[in-house]
Automatic annotation (TrEMBL):
One of its GO terms (biological process) is glycerophospholipid biosynthetic process. It comes from Paramagnetospirillum kuznetsovii. Its main location: membrane. Pathway: Phospholipid metabolism; phosphatidylglycerol biosynthesis; phosphatidylglycerol from CDP-diacylglycerol: step 1/2; Lipid metabolism. This is CDP-diacylglycerol--glycerol-3-phosphate 3-phosphatidyltransferase. Keywords: Lipid biosynthesis, Lipid metabolism, Membrane, Phospholipid biosynthesis, Phospholipid metabolism, Transferase, Transmembrane, Transmembrane helix. It is found in: Membrane. One of its GO terms (molecular function) is CDP-diacylglycerol-glycerol-3-phosphate 3-phosphatidyltransferase activity. Pfam families: CDP-OH_P_transf. It is a multi-pass membrane protein. GO terms for cellular component: membrane.
């Protein structure tokens, strides 16, 4: 059912993407704080929709399909914009790229594994990666508008930590996926 609360929260994360992206084109600290608030709210809905779905037994096929896509779309769009608008240093393009590539890898693995009817549960370490990433990115969004702390440095350190966890969890998922790929060769 598309209209359940968890599904609406997931859809809201997708709906906020063009607004956050558009705020990159608006000058001033207000736009940065607005992007921070919208992304932070979206990150909270990511946790909240899963909690509500499980606690109220509202887990749906639509939600299980769309939730990880919404997360990836939001994160990838904002990482691209941070890079495009020089809101991260050039050296931090690397962890941003690692995060984006891992998201593509895991999505591909999940798609293949779904075809052979194998689930790939999210690991505890992957949840930590997501949590750190969902804190680092809004810190980078607010950037220089927060004059009371070195937000860019804090955000970039968080991005690097998330990227390291991304490599570890991506490798774990790849290893698990490869076992199933080898076990399910294409018929000749």
């Amino acid at each position: 059912m598309v209209t359940s609360l968890p599904n609406l929260l997931t859809l809201s994360r997708i709906a906020v993407i063009p607004i956050v992206v558009g705020l990159f084109y608006v000058d001033g600290d207000g736009a940065r704080w607005a992007a921070w608030a919208l992304f932070s709210l979206a990150a909270i809905t990511d946790w909240f929709d899963g909690y509500v779905a499980r606690s109220m037994n509202l887990v749906s096929t639509f939600g299980r399909f769309l939730d990880p896509i919404a997360d990836k779309l939001l994160v990838v769009a904002v990482l691209f914009m941070l890079a495009a608008f020089d809101r991260i240093s050039q050296v931090s393009f690397l962890p941003a790229l690692v995060i984006v590539l891992r998201e593509i890898l895991v999505s591909g693995l999940r798609e293949f594994l779904a075809e052979v009817r194998v689930g790939m549960p999210v690991s505890r370490l992957a949840k930590w990666k997501t949590g750190i990433q969902m804190v680092a990115i809004p810190v980078l969004l607010v950037g220089d508008a927060a004059t009371f702390m070195p937000t860019r440095q804090i955000g970039e350190v968080g991005l690097w930590v998330a990227a390291i966890l991304t490599l570890i969890t991506g490798w774990d998922y790849l290893q698990s996926g490869m076992r199933h790929i080898r076990a399910n060769p294409v018929p000749k």
